TrEMBL record:
Its main location: cytoplasm. It is found in: Cytoplasm. One of its GO terms (molecular function) is glycine binding. It catalyses: glycine + S-adenosyl-L-methionine = sarcosine + S-adenosyl-L-homocysteine + H(+). The keyword Phosphoprotein applies. Pfam families: Methyltransf_31 (PF13847). S-adenosyl-L-methionine binds at Y26, W35, R45, A69, D90, N121, W122, L143. One of its GO terms (cellular component) is cytosol. GO terms for biological process: methylation; one-carbon metabolic process; protein homotetramerization; regulation of gluconeogenesis; S-adenosylhomocysteine metabolic process; S-adenosylmethionine metabolic process; sarcosine metabolic process. Keywords: Cytoplasm, Folate-binding, Methyltransferase, Phosphoprotein, S-adenosyl-L-methionine, Transferase. This is Glycine N-methyltransferase. SUPFAM superfamilies: S-adenosyl-L-methionine-dependent methyltransferases.
Length: 290
């Protein structure tokens, strides 16, 4: 584990501001291009993840889905093909261009012709897409460790709370938020990150060098330097994440949705009693009916 002082020169991400005003870690297009190669199309999704997501949404009678971290569109495409109605948003126009291209290529298919894709800011999401919400979505999904891209320097994590409130406002009564994060508790303890993602079947060799930035004695940022080899090319890029610790993240969800909200926690797409030290935690929390 590398420990970096805030007084040091520390390049956290590629520079660039998205149109919505949120710092876009994919703004230079470098990570977005490599990420598309790395994750591939929807067929690269692991079977256990696909079954987990589809079965969960169907078991909750979800039909209208808001994908708030659609990226290149992998999850949204998978959901469209499974018969869900999907609205997809992301803060990165460089990532969205791949989703827009897929929509155009498959525009003769009704589901794709009706697919709504927008650039949006999590902090103002409700107002940004107000005309699309109607009576509310059955589910909001924020998966693939995406939420951790949102940094927050305030002690109370005000921006994280504001974003989750935006997600909650987009849900119908009884609707659910499905949101995940890496097991940062374990990353902070061991100083390492698994190179292979549970979300993707990939034959590409990947290595992740993990660094932790501490501020006032507390972990403030985890930076991962990715090494990806694909098509005889070697690519490197850096992405930074807020190290969400499980207990605190759960407390924030309960604060926003209410202490009586139904909350389920999964590890690597399994019940927690089936796995000891998951790479990812997946939270499901339901909006109260009243």
């Amino acid at each position: 584990m590398s420990v970096t002082s805030p007084d040091s020169v520390f390049i956290a991400r590629s520079e660039g501001i998205s149109a919505e005003g949120v710092r876009d870690q994919y703004a230079d297009g470098r990570a977005a291009q490599v990420w598309e190669i790395f994750i591939g199309d929807k067929n690269s999704r692991t079977d256990n993840y696909k079954k987990f997501l589809i079965n969960l949404l169907k078991s909750k009678n979800c039909k209208r889905i808001l994908d708030v971290a659609c990226g290149t569109g992998v999850d949204s495409i998978m959901l469209l093909e499974e018969g869900f109605e999907v609205v997809s948003v992301d803060a990165s126009d460089k990532m969205l261009k791949y989703a827009l291209k897929e929509r155009w290529n498959r525009r003769k298919e009704p589901a794709f012709d009706n697919w709504i894709i927008e650039e949006a800011n999590w902090l103002t999401l409700y107002n940004d897409i107000k005309e699309l919400i109607g009576k509310g979505f059955d589910a909001v999904i924020c998966l693939g460790n995406s939420f951790a891209h949102l940094m927050d320097s305030s002690p109370e994590q005000c921006e994280h709370k504001k974003a989750i409130r935006s997600f909650e406002k987009c849900l119908r009564p009884g609707g659910m938020l499905l949101i995940d994060h890496r097991n940062y508790d374990n990353i902070l303890e061991t100083g390492s990150t698994p190179a292979k993602s549970l979300y993707y079947n990939t034959s590409h060799t990947a290595d992740i060098k993990t660094s932790v930035l501490f501020y006032c004695g507390k972990p403030a940022m985890v930076t991962m330097d990715y090494l990806i080899e694909a098509n005889n090319l070697t690519s490197e890029f850096r992405l930074s994440y807020y190290p969400h610790e499980l207990k605190r993240f759960t407390e924030i969800l309960k604060e926003i949705f209410g202490s009586k909200a139904k909350h389920q926690l999964f590890g690597d797409f399994k019940n927690l009693n089936e796995i000891k030290n998951p790479a990812f935690y997946i939270h499901l929390i339901e909006k109260n009916l009243n």
